[in-house]
C-alpha cells in the first residue's frame, strides 16, 4: 500500500461504477480516475447543472470516456427510488457512497430527517438497498462508503437519531459519519452471512481541500468562519486528488477486506492510503443491528436476502 497512487489503479474496462456527489471535490476526482481506467461511470448528483458540467469536464479531459450524469437527491427518498428504478445497466461493480454535507445549520430533508443524518446515512442506506440486486449479481462488486475521522467526536444516540432533543452541527456531523461506519460494519456482516462475495468497505480523505468545509458557514452568512475554513484549506489541507486516493484504493485495490477502513497515513491527516484507526463503537454488532433496523423503518427500504 506504501506510495499507492492513481497510476496503480487496475484496468477498469468492462466495469460500471456509480459515484454519488461526483460533481465536485473527491467525488469528481474518483469518477474521473475510474473513467480514465476505462470504467463506465454514472455521476449521481443532486444538481442537474453541476452534474452535467462534471460530465462535460470529464469527457473533455478524457475523450471517449463513458460517463453519464443522472440526477440523485439523497435528501429525498422519492429521488433515491427514482434513480434506482431508472438504473438499467446489467451490472454494478462499484457503488461509491461519497456525497455528503458537513456541519450545516439545523434543517430537515424532504422526508423530515435531520439533514446530515438523512443525506449522509439514510439516503445512502436506501440507495444501496435498492441497488443491492445489481451488486449481488455482479462478481467482485464493492460498496465503498466515505466516512471521516471526525466520527470519533460522537457515538450515535439511538434515542435521538434525528437530533430532535438538541442540535449541535459538528456532533450531528460526527454521528452521521459514525453511522456510515456502522452501516459498513453491519452490511459486511450480513453479506458474509449470506455467502456473498460483495465487499463493503469504508474510506476517509483525511483533511482534503474541497467545498465541504465552507458550505455550512456560507449558508449561514458566517463570513469569518468561511474565511477561516478557506484559509485552512489553503495552508493545511492536501489536494482533493490526494484526498480521493483512499476511496479509489478501497474501490479498486486487490485484497481489500470487508469492513476495512482506509485513510491517508501515517496519522490520518494526509499521505498515501493505509488502514485507518476507527472508534470501537463503529464495530459494535448490537449497535450496527439497531441502526440497521431503525434505518429500514425510517426509509422503508428492506434489504431482501440479507438477514441479521
UniProtKB/TrEMBL annotation:
Listed Gene3D superfamilies: NAD(P)-binding Rossmann-like Domain (3.40.50.720)
Highest taxon of source: Bacteria
Molecular functions per Gene Ontology: oxidoreductase activity
Keyword Oxidoreductase tagged: yes
Sorted UniProt keywords: Oxidoreductase
Pfam families per the UniProt record, alphabetical: adh_short
Family: Belongs to the short-chain dehydrogenases/reductases (SDR) family.
Protein name: Oxidoreductase
